[in-house]
Amino acid sequence: MELVRTEAETGLITLSQDAPLNGPSWLKDLQDKARAEFQALGLPNRRVEEWKYTDLKAAMKVAFQPVDQGDVTEAQVNELIGDELAGLATHNLVFVDGQLNEGLSDLSIGEGVEILSLKAALADDVSWVKPIGSVQQNDRDAVQALNLVLMQGGAAIKIAERKEVSKPIHLIFVSTASSESSVASRLFFDIGAAANVEFIESHVSLKDQASQTNLVTEVLVGDWAKVRHVKFNNDHKESFHLSNVIGKLGKESDYGLFQATLDGGLTRNQVEIRYDGDEAKADISGVALLSGSSHADLTLVMDHAALGCESRELFKTVLDDEGRAVFQGKVIVQPGAQKTDGGMMSKALLLSETAEFDSKPELEIYADDVLCGHGATTGQIDDELLFYLKARGVPDAEARALLIQAFVGEALELIENDTLRDYVIDQTLAWYEKA
Amino acid sequence: MLEIKNLHVEVEGQPILNGIDLVIPDGEVHAIMGPNGSGKSTLSYVIAGKDEYDITEGDILYNGESILEMDPAERVAAGLFLAFQYPIEIPGVATMTFLRTAINAVRKEREQDELSIPDMMKLIQAKAKDLGVKPEMLKRGLNVGFSGGEKKRMEILQMALLDPGMCILDETDSGLDIDALRIVSEGVNALRSETRSMLVITHYQRLLNYIVPDKVHVMSDGKIARTGGKELALELEDAGYAEYDEELA
User: What is the radius of gyration, based on Cα positions, of chain A?
Assistant: First the structure.
């Protein structure tokens, strides 16, 4: 039977005939496979279980075109990320229209930290980037397959054993296009044993244009290593932001990913973590504040394949207008992954009757000595609490803002970096004032 | 001055208040006593502006103006304050943040300058100390993990900070031991002045040994059944509410 292709699918297939980056043969093989996968799968739609609530095929009408790297100055970048973040002492890596801009980036962080543009790393066939595309085998995800072929740039970062990176590495993605554009990039982090590093990731647009972003971040966390990653999105309301974080955790490592999504068009933050070493722990948490017709999807797979690992997930979602959020969290405990400790919680606060929250927590447990739990709640602002605050002179709008802040506060507390936490809190406060 | 005129209130079609008439002049402290279910707490919520009540007849005037169309926060700015029988716990809202927000919101509405953070902290800390509110309590979530006595002290602290002209104390004595009752009462008595009136709602006479009222009203079946001086409370203590409560009679 002939497949019915949408205009966007046809456009993406045409784009994927050529891979923008030149790579070694192992990459070409992976790309050939990925190209065939995408052609077979097409864009994910509601009939694909993992995409049941986010019908990308229906939502993406056309495929935007990639653009060449545009011009942007350091001052413009700082203005876009705002004083608060620009003032934070960080090593900045600036990606302009998907490509690492070496002039704007701080590439020499010091001994023990190697930063390469993805283009150079692949062109030179640098040996440590070989896990790219295969940190985890997942043959069925069309968006990841597409990224592997269409990736225009990105970075590969290697942190040496026992290296403590003193300042956070800020990954700043800037889109400069003056019309709709697409960006496909990939990050690869190889974190050595007992190393310690913090990443901040933000996405900004110079000309406030809609974009289609496809970003894949692959992370290898070494034994005893500690990684913190805070990702912040505040995209254009017509934008598509498809992010995949794919991680593999070594023995007794400690991985934390916090994702904050404010509005945007269609956002999908997909996270796949595999526990490879015993007693590793991960905290994958976040907040989403959605108004207008923003749609944000958080899809998680926590795959416990080792002994005594811990996973913690806490998500707080606030929905106004016709905002829609999706939470899909799957905790897998493989045979033999005894003493797994998994706790997952997703809570939504609905501010309007037309908002929607879809939650699908799943446990797949094949071991008998584990502690796993999940919970999901959906509610509205509590009238009793609201009246109490108003009976103390706090006007309605401010009282609601305080209660929303209290609701998301529990999750925001998980951001360890004080300045960054204050920044995210300020962004959320600005959102309530607007909402 | 608070004037309640022929107030009739229903909840979901059920009449609760059946024609309350009450005047509390400036500087006076009145007590409302009555059996459970007589409508005492409803009256306090209606004055504060809770929206689940239907006012079918009558009016409430504060300093000569009807407050019925005012939002609860506007009533606070106008000078009304209700201390809750059961103060509500709000996890995630730090007590200090909440107090600052409330004070500045009320000051703004009263066309007073907002207080700077240091001035605000000084004011709050001084009043907190007077009421025996520990500094740690100000850092915690509002009322979260507070004992019954601590919650009531926090109510009186808020009352002191918001500088109301008319205080309504709804069963402030409930859940308090004798020491807590004394501290809370001292806090309330310190706020008594010629320009500030109070309405003390209580089931028991005990509280009125500490906060001595100018007048006592007995409420029954949604109406004021009897009004007298402070000796009326003592009489009720001896005779009980049987005379006013059909079910007990």
Answer: 21
Q: Identify whether the C-beta of residue A43 lies closer than 8 Å to the C-beta of residue A164.
A: no
- Which residues from B are below 8 Å from A when comparing CB atoms? 48-51, 71-73, 76-77, 82, 84, 87-88, 90-93, 97-98, 101-103, 105-106, 109, 141, 158, 162
Instruction: For residue A407, give the H/E element and its range.
Output: helix A396-412
CB contact under 8 Å between A402 and B93, yes or no, is yes
pLDDT (average), residues B245-249:
56
CA angle B1, B6, B12 (to 5 degrees): 115
**A116 sits in which H/E element:** strand A113-117
Per-residue confidence (pLDDT) for residue A353, from 0 to 100: 95
What pLDDT is stored for residue A433 in this prediction? Answer: 79
Candidates A318, A387, A392: best to mutate against B (most CBs of B within 10 A) is: A392
H-helix or E-strand containing A40? helix A25-41
For A114-171, write each residue's pLDDT tens digit.
999 999 999 999 999 999 998 887 667 999 999 999 999 999 999 999 999 999 999 9
Contacts of B41 in chain A (CB under 8 A): none
Rounded to the nearest 10°, the torsion over CA A205, A210, A216, A219 is 30
Separation between Cα atoms, residue A182 and residue A175, nearest integer Å? 9
The encoded tokens of residue B33 equal: 């006593």
CB contact under 8 A, B158 and A392: yes
Q: Which residue has the tokens 């040994």?
A: B209
pLDDT value for A151: 97
Read off φ and ψ for residue A253, nearest 5 degrees.
Answer: -80, 170
- Give the Cα separation of A92 and A105 in Å (integer): 5
Q: Which two tokens stand for residue A239?
A: 């934008």
Question: Tell me, what's the pLDDT at A429?
Answer: 86
Picking from B166, B202, B239, B208, the residue whose alpha carbon sits closest to that of residue B38 is: B202
Between positions 328 and 387 of A, the ones with CB within 8 A of B are: 384-385, 387
Instruction: Say how far residue B78 (Cα) sits from the centre of its chain.
Output: 15
Query: How many CA atoms does the CB half-sphere of A120 hold within 13 Å?
Result: 11
Whether residue B249 is predicted with pLDDT greater than 50 in this model: the reply is: no
A402 reaches B (C-beta below 8 A): yes
Q: What is the distance between the alpha carbons of residues A186 and A189, in angstroms, rounded to a whole number?
A: 10
Question: What is the C-alpha separation between B100 and B117, in angstroms, rounded?
Answer: 8
The stretches in chain A having pLDDT less than 70 are: 1-3, 138-139, 435
Q: Cα dist. A285→A47, A98, A414 in Å?
A: 27, 26, 8
Q: Give the DSSP H/E element, type plus range, for residue A317.
A: strand A310-319
Supply angle C-alpha A413, A419, A420, rounded to 5: 65
Question: If 0-12 CB within 10 Å is exposed, 13-18 middle and 19+ buried, where does residue A83 land?
Answer: exposed
Could you give the CA distance from residue A85 to residue A168 in angstroms, rounded to a whole number?
11
Quote the pLDDT of residue B247: 53
Q: Tell me the pTM.
A: 0.87
**Is the pLDDT score of B14 beyond 60?**
yes
Q: How far apart are CA A53 and CA A44, in angstroms?
A: 11
Render A305-350 in DSSP notation, one character per residue. -STT-EEEEEEEEEE-TT-EEEEEEEEEE-TT-TT-EEEEEEEEEE
Q: Tokens 């309350």 sit at which residue? A: B20
For residue B236, the model assigns a pLDDT of: 85
Structure-token match 């009043």, residue found:
B127
Please report the pLDDT score of residue B62 as a whole number.
97
Read off the DSSP letter of residue B244: G
Sign of CA dihedral B200, B206, B212, B217: positive
Give the residue, A418 or B168, on which the prediction is more confident.
B168
Residues of A in contact with B73 (CB under 8 A): 390-391, 393-396, 399
